[in-house]
Design goal:
Blueprint: E1 8-9, H1 15-29, H2 37-45, E2 52-56, E3 60-69, E4 74-84, H3 93-109, E5 113-116, H4 123-132, H5 147-154
Parallel strand pairs: 4-5
Antiparallel strand pairs: 1-2, 2-3, 3-4
């Protein structure tokens, strides 16, 4: 793997690379890409960043934010998006991205671990995470509230 594709912390100058990787991930998964570019850019590089991104040339991207976990006993780095180009899969890039997520999140937030979600039907990703030692729990379900339902909840006195 060349130095240009070694994982590194993304800066504002890398936003196009981050965006391209996240679009590729959405396409690979058949997911919509609904976030406004300005909102993502502000979340990563604005005056009060909420997350960080890693880039590995045009071959990989990770999007990470802190999540406080009382059951884990501290902050977990929540990896909301992890993409490795098909041509780079099997090269160790995914592991290197996750290792850097671990180092960066421990330095920033004192993270005690990593958390991510993986689709049931994405067997390659599930196998990859299992080989690394990630444990999936059948008791966990991700619930999302958006759109009109979120607006109605916010309007509750």
């Amino acid at each position: 793997m060349s130095d240009s594709s070694a994982p590194r912390l993304a800066g504002p100058e890398d936003f196009a690379t981050v965006l391209a990787g996240l679009h590729a991930l959405a396409s690979d998964l058949g997911d919509p890409f609904a976030i406004a570019e300005t909102a993502l850019q502000d979340a990563l590089f604005g005056p009060r960043p909420l997350a960080f991104a890693l880039v590995a040339g045009g071959q990989g991207v990770a999007l990470v934010q802190p999540q406080i976990s009382t059951s884990a006993g501290g902050v977990l780095a929540y990896i909301s998006d992890l993409w490795v180009a098909r041509t780079a899969r099997g090269t160790g890039l995914g592991r290197r991205l996750l290792a850097m997520v671990g180092r960066e999140s421990a330095a920033r937030w004192g993270a005690v671990g990593l958390r991510l979600a993986v689709y049931d039907n994405n067997t390659n990703a599930r196998d990859f995470y299992a080989r690394m030692g990630f444990v999936t729990h059948d008791r966990d379900r991700i619930a999302v509230l958006t759109g009109a339902e979120f607006a109605m909840l916010k309007a509750t006195p």
